[in-house]
Amino acid sequence: LKILSRTKDKRLIYSILGITGEQLRDSKLITDDVNKFLERGQLEKALYLVKLSKGNSGSGMDSIIRYHLIELNSPKEALSLYLWRRKNAISFTKFSHTIFFDGMAKQPELLSKSMGKSLFNIVERLLEDKEEDDLEVKGVSLIEFNSMMNGLANCEDPSFALQLFKKLNDRIPALKNCRSAKYDPVTLSCLFKAISHIKEKSMFINAFNNTMNSLSGVKIDSQLCYQIAKTLGSQKFDKMITREALSVIEKYFDVYA
Q: Which of 36, 37, 79, 28 is nearest to 58 (CA)?
């Protein structure tokens, strides 16, 4: 790879990477080759191929970021790659942000507050980008929104997920699709996940009750029920929280203790 960084001989570069110039014009072939490099653990080659192919490497870049998040559990490196991608105008696919935020949500350790702030900054920029065209705001899909919520909910600071959910009620044009479809059980599961990280008792009760009030009109599925129970179980109950928990269970699930 040192040779690749020093030479401008395209034939030598293609030979080392095992590709042809024609392949660089085919995004599917690029993605296939990137995935092969990743399967062999050849991250440098995969990234170099993406750099070489520029505008045809969106899916390949998705694969590299997913690899860092899912295989390596390296959120800092994934964030660096995301920012590098944006800076160098490497194309984004319709799946790019879902892959990025869902990967953040799957990290085994909670993301730091600084990482959460970086992710929230990305979210805010995405929402702004969706609103740049005054004639038509395409908007964020509910799937994209839920992936953002999921990633932010895996942060030790729950305020970022709570702020994003609040934006639904602030009539932000970029979130019009989420309002028209309304949020779903996945959205609320992510919100309860974030709330489980609140350590201060009164703040927890307030956030939990407010979110329970958002259940109206939303079909409660088994995953949402599980997350609600897990959120309650995340707290060291005193008598006050125990009463609140039992009240919630009785009200919404017809279970009486």
A: 28
The span from the CA of 24 to the CA of 27, in Å, is: 7
Give pLDDT, residue 241: 65
Q: How do residues 63-105 score in pLDDT, each as one tens digit?
A: 999 999 999 999 999 999 999 999 988 889 999 999 999 999 9
Supply the pTM of this predicted model. 0.84
Cα 219 from Cα 186, distance rounded (Å) = 10
Closest CA to 66 of 81, 51, 55: 81
Which of 175, 171, 172, 118 is CA-nearest to residue 143?
A: 175
Place of tokens 């703040």: 203
- At a CB cut-off of 8 Å and minimum separation 6, what does 76 contact? 115
Query: Which pair of structure tokens corresponds to residue 5?
Result: 């960084």
